[in-house]
Amino acid sequence: MTAAKTTAESTSTASTSTSVPYPLGVSLRPDGKADVAVYSETADSVTVVIVDESNNEVSSTDLGSRTGHVFHGFVDGLDHGTRYGLRVDGPWDPPEGLRHNVDKLLLDPYARAVAGSVEWDEAVFSHHHEEPATLNEVDSAPFMPVSVVSHSDFDWGTDTPPRIPLDASVVYEVHVKGFTARHPDVDESLRGTYAGLTHPAAIAALVDLGVTAVELLPVHQFVQDSHLLEDGRRNYWGYNSIGFFAPHNEYSSAGDEGGQVDEFKTMVKALHEAGIEVILDVVYNHTAEGNHLGPTLSLKGIDNRSYYRLVDSDRSSYFDTTGTGNSLNVGHPAALALIMDSLRYWVTEMHVDGFRFDLASTLTRQDSALDMHSAFLSLVHQDPTLASVKLIAEPWDTHGYQVGGFPARWSEWNGKFRDDVRDFWRGVEGSLGALAQRITGSPDVYEDTRRPTLASVNFVTAHDGFTLADLNSYDDKHNDANGEDNTDGESDNRSWGCGAEGPTEDEGILALRARQQRNHLATLLLSAGVPMILGGDEIGRTQNGNNNAYCQDNELSWFDWAGGDRDLQQFTTDLIRLRRDHPALRPIWFRHASESDEKTYVDFHRADGQQFGEEDWADDSALSMLVAMASEGDDAVFAWLVNASSSPVEFTLPTGNWKQSLSSDPDQAYESAGPSILIREHSFTLLMR
Questions:
Q1: Among all residues, which ones are annotated catalytic?
Q2: 591-688: in CATH 2.60.40.1180
Q3: pTM for this structure?
Q4: Measuring CA to CA, which of 25, 230, 401, 537 is 20 to 30 A from 257?
């Protein structure tokens, strides 16, 4: 849809009799009035423009009052479903960081819904790598989506957040669209939508698996990249946000005139009824406006200097620790308010249960260095609305890696868990000691700050990288479909194709790959911490070796339900059930406290039954061990026998009557058969007493 520059039918000045500067955005009042408030330190005026379905201007109203740096006033004609935009007048002076252009129709950063999408014209395709030299050239910008007014009325009924404790949580990272886009039991009109995720077949898949939370890849309104569209691809993952309050409209079966808001709420309500929490992967570190070459869509044209971090020596340039062109200016109150208001909105109005913060380290950069006492972390820590929800950090950005550095209220994606587990199961010498740290909750990372094992969100695979099937089927990435000559994506994957690269008919290799998938899943779900499963790993989802499928909005990324591995799905279900039923498999204590605790422990034994000594941990060739696990309140003791070596290993068992719970080896069978057991190469067996 195009932003037509027709003359508005009427122009007025907003009534200011009782207008207030907070909250920002559009507030529908009980008396029928609509109060609008927009923050800008550098603007001269702000105009609210109401548009029709073709984006032709119907009316425009200047916000006639200014309190501090907030323009505000009443605007006639705003109601649920009304389409509108902002025109912000002010200086155009890029060297000073000022990028106002009154000709541009801007998105309200506080809009609850967005209609349409950015439509890149031919001029943008051919010139988007060149910064406009004059104000008029900037006017050849992409055609704009528009903001949509949305009321807060919704029948939540008796909706209650599940409030599942971290130690009982199993997180499932999943894409709203990809989960149901090919689901044969979901109505075709609902596939790939919020409504699709509430379909009984979709919810049954989650409930039957046993996960306790879905961690949804970005659902904030985001922008399709022009260079991807130009090459026939699309931004699938959605890490290109432009609306921190608006559910992405492409995932709505109810259209984009505000219906996406109620549809999202209906999804949350249905998942809660099933006992499943909703965690959002949020991208507050940057926006889709990019650097000085990027489009002006919202914040850049409203108050570029307040909302974005600019380079001190050249304010036409953006300080970038995200690899996307810009970083939000979290040292400024306006940017901080935008983030905090958004977080509170998703908790109070949309009833979500937590957040995973993409490139969270960027949000701690008060100036430019990482700061664990930053204003952002301090605000989150003291906010009562956020006190009851889960907070998960991706504890790195392009300029810093700080696993273990976030405050006690936070959990973190533990990249060390991913790397060390991958190394162990592919047989890297010297990896046994690191594995012991990971399966006991990474005390080497968290114990010095007295953080429990629950600070560690453990994962072996995530959206960014290989799927579990591909991790064990490829030595190298195969990203040619992305159009970047296979230069994109991580090259150091710590993967192993088990003797072949990609598809094979070799039965021995296929059997080894099947064991390896189960080895990784077992290590994930039998380790202390909060496990996160990549959605689709439980059915053997493959991306054909593509480890950076961010631009593959197609069957390469979508779940193949018809061709899924049902045996692996059942194995994963059994693992999750075991973890749920036995506290011994999900300890939350500090490691140092277990030494004198006879009822709760994790002990490490050599294959001959002797406990590990210092010299054993120093043996780089050791790739097998017996892990004994017990917990007060659990009537079972477990012996977890792991063997990542290339030869079978015979284990001497602790005394007692043992029975087999699970094994990655389909030929393994043990039922109190004797004092020892032979574990084949690259496999595990879990025994219970």
A1: 358, 394
A2: yes
A3: 0.94
A4: 230
